[in-house]
Amino acid sequence: MPINPLFITDFNRVRLEFVGHYRDVCENPASSTLWLDVGRSSVLDLTYQTLPVKNDLSHFPVPFFDPRDNRQVTLPVVFAGSPDLMQQQAASIVSSWFGSRAGWRGQHFPVMYNTLPDRNAIVFATNDKRPDFLRDHSAGKSAGD
């Protein structure tokens, strides 16, 4: 049965309600002809489409961490190459912060080098040490500039 996507919000519950009749009047609610069994092997098949989201941190920590999502947090950490000590410390702090938010969900922080994954990721870069996919971006300015 198709569901209008306008009814889908950021948190949803599906409730099944069976309304059945075997007579026009005087039905016995305990009659086996009125029962519906939704078994453990029943499935709900969803077709969904991911919507594009602008690079905007105003909803932080979303999209990196969504407190309404009960799955394990998987957040790739990307470096241009072998990270120096400062980048390692920065990645440790950020990963620790997200890990504390993940709590019981668990967390996984795969490390990638010079490759942008097909999902949201935290990229650690400096003007001198940038991944190739950021080469065309203008250089950042320091707080003193």
TrEMBL record:
Keyword NADP in annotation: no
Pathway(s) this gene product operates in, as recorded in its UniProt entry: Glycan metabolism; bacterial cellulose biosynthesis
Keyword terms of this UniProt record: c-di-GMP, Cell inner membrane, Cell membrane, Cellulose biosynthesis, Membrane, Transmembrane, Transmembrane helix
Major subcellular location class: membrane
TM region(s), chain numbering: none
GO cellular component, one term: plasma membrane
UniProt-listed Pfam families: BcsB
One of the GO biological process terms: cellulose biosynthetic process
Alphabetical list of InterPro entries matching this protein: Cell_synthase_bac
UniProt-annotated location(s): Cell inner membrane; Cell membrane
Membrane topology: Single-pass membrane protein
Quaternary structure (record): Tightly associated with the cellulose synthase catalytic subunit.
Functional note: Binds the cellulose synthase activator, bis-(3'-5') cyclic diguanylic acid (c-di-GMP).
UniProt record similarity statement: Belongs to the AcsB/BcsB family.
Protein name: Cyclic di-GMP-binding protein
